[in-house]
């Protein structure tokens, strides 16, 4: 199977955290000067999107009747849109059924290049330590993750490619780092000295991987699943220490064992689920070398260096005194 051949590419989720980064990366590499046309499906296009060099199609994956023929004449579907949270019915309509609709349209149009942005949350409870994509079966524990695992199965059956990032940070992040700040403020203690290892990826790196795949032949990737993370896991002590230092948040001043910390968080942050707490307290890191080898990209510097690049954005958009309920949205993605 070849590359785009000059035919248009469809992108869903372009106004979200990851999709916006993909648009930025397309501009950075000059896609709109030399690449094929980009068509964006969105419910409500902001002004910046209409002015960014894309063709906008208004529509909703939960109401697909008006989207028949959407992908006719295209070469590739990059499906990033997702329903995160909310009732189970909405998750099924957008994540499972919306993906099935796009796949059916792609099949009818003769398209084989279909990329789906999923999440390691489909694995469910950890700990997970250096597991490769072929050695861990999805066991989702929420309506969001269940619907995304169901979407994954349809994509792989079709022969599409699935990416599973874990915790994503950077410009536009309204979940992971803000939630971390609220947690540290509410319970200013390390969990088992912050020893847990986790997989993270800067959103610009994730976007670069997606854009690189858009320009490659997918002959070796059809039906494949890739962990989409920095290949070097990082300890939560470094993550929290870096975030606190860069954003002016007081770092933890003492240490609590996992169970003692969980008992405390249940009282002061009742919205934090056991699964979300596990992501911060226990190892969740995934072998992620394959995708970097496939794209021949260099992951570059470490977490502290990359986080510093987005620290100004976080300082402008995240209040360290926030008292909103903790929402580790990227446990669901």
Beta-strand percentage range: 15-25%
Order of neighbouring strands in the sheet with most strands: 3-2-1-4-5-7-12
Rg, Cα atoms, Å: 20 Å
Low-confidence stretches: 322-333
Structural shape: globular
User: Secondary-structure element sequence?
Assistant: EHHEHEEHEEHEEHEEEHEEHEHHEHH
Number of domains: 2
Percent of residues in helices: 40-55%
* Biggest sheet record: 7 strands, parallel
In terms of structural class, how would the helical and strand content be classed? alpha/beta
Name of the CATH first level of the largest domain: Alpha Beta
Structural account:
By secondary structure, the protein is of the alpha/beta class. The chain folds into two domains: 9-169 and 201-227, NAD(P)-binding Rossmann-like Domain (Rossmann fold), CATH 3.40.50; 176-199 and 232-286 and 294-331, no CATH class. The chain has twelve helices and 15 strands. A seven-stranded parallel beta sheet has the order 3-2-1-4-5-7-12. Strands 6-15 form a two-stranded parallel ribbon. Helix 1 (17-28) crosses helix 7 (203-214), helix 4 (88-109) runs parallel beside helix 5 (143-158) and helix 8 (236-247) packs across helix 12.
Output the keywords.
two-stranded parallel ribbon, disordered C terminus, 333 residues, globular, 15 strands, alpha/beta, 2 domains, Rossmann fold, 7-stranded parallel beta sheet
List the SSEs and their pairings.
Elements: E1 9-12, H1 17-28, H2 31-34, E2 38-42, H3 47-50, E3 55-58, E4 76-79, H4 88-109, E5 113-117, E6 128-131, H5 143-158, E7 161-164, E8 167-169, H6 176-186, E9 189-191, E10 197-198, E11 200-202, H7 203-214, E12 225-227, E13 234-235, H8 236-247, E14 254-256, H9 258-268, H10 274-281, E15 284-286, H11 289-295, H12 303-317
GO cellular component, one term: cytoplasm
GO molecular function, one term: aldehyde dehydrogenase (NAD+) activity
Protein name: NAD-dependent epimerase/dehydratase domain-containing protein
